[in-house]
């Protein structure tokens, strides 16, 4: 429709790159000479996604929202964002893009590829290269440093030497980026790439890890059982399910308590007593610095802090219920996912059977929906008052003791039976 209306229009962006690599894609973006108001006039169903930047969302007949953006060129850049103005040609638009593999345009009507910077050849050669001068490209937006590492890891590309040199030099300026942009890039590495370790290793090699996540950088060179802690974390991240991003984050951060906990024992060997508590504290610092949501931060801190918290393998159901008092059921599945990922990264004979047996035990107990809090008891403060017990600290003490009795014998959680225990003085 844009073409019929007399406007120049091209398909651009990651969809072209993915298609050339033989990867499925559903995110097709268009660049056009039409101005936003002209796009909105041509199409009936539009959404103003970023009119000030020239982007209009167009709902196609397939009910997919396509981003249609007017050709742009950079006028001024600040290392975090750019001032742009509308351009008149696809070549100008492609010239402002970050990497050659992202600076390819396709005209489906004419069957034409426009590739002024050799992106197709770089894709075939598995090379990541900036458009134009690398130092200028990174200086325009320092987030491109992290994007480069993500692309190189995800698509298994070799970073061209001049691009790598400029990238490493630009790392010093990453502190100008907002925490939200940094977090989003890290999350993409973990969520979009099954072998996330490829990109994460580049974080370490380029200095990004030392700049943005020094807690993780401090684990490099620390050996646990003959394995470097950073290497172990990378292997565990790859072992965790790609769709479980928060589990992958927890696994990545699981060892950051080892450096501050490290001390020599009487024989001169390194000990890491209490590293889980340190790791939880450090993970909280990292999540706050990255401005993660409260829910994300609390879950990751809980997983990191409880990483070694499992009940004994021969625990009876009552023992498992007591464990669940300290490890809330909503956390249990992810905690086992963390433990399984760590085991896969550093297998111990019989460890898989042990984890499987413990999971079956706790899963069976959770299916019974056990009473795990005072609020779930069949009695409360009003019932104690009706027995003539004066309100005060005794209420909490009595209810806590009743909870412990119910943990041992779930069948006791009936109003009359619990009150009978109080009447007979078996709890006080």
Task: Write up this protein.
The protein has 428 residues and is α+β, with helices and mostly antiparallel strands. The chain folds into three domains: 125 residues, Beta Polymerase, domain 2; 161 residues, no CATH class; 50 residues, no CATH class. It has 22 helices and 15 strands. Strands 1-2-5-4-3 form a five-stranded mixed beta sheet. It has a two-stranded antiparallel sheet with strand order 6-7. A two-stranded antiparallel sheet has the order 8-9. It is elongated, with a radius of gyration of 29 Å. The model has no long low-confidence stretch (mean pLDDT 93).
Topology (SSEs and partners):
Blueprint: E1 9-12, H1 14-20, E2 29-32, H2 36-42, E3 46-50, E4 55-59, E5 65-70, E6 72-77, E7 82-86, H3 90-95, E8 105-107, E9 112-114, H4 119-124, E10 127-128, H5 134-140, H6 143-155, E11 158-159, H7 161-170, H8 179-192, H9 197-206, H10 208-212, H11 214-217, E12 223-224, E13 227-228, H12 229-239, H13 245-253, H14 258-261, E14 263-264, E15 270-271, H15 275-289, H16 294-305, H17 317-324, H18 329-345, H19 351-367, H20 381-386, H21 393-408, H22 415-423
Parallel strand pairs: 2-5, 10-11
Antiparallel strand pairs: 1-2, 3-4, 4-5, 6-7, 8-9, 12-13, 14-15
Helix pairs in contact: 5-7, 6-8, 6-9, 12-13, 12-18, 13-16, 13-18, 15-16, 18-19
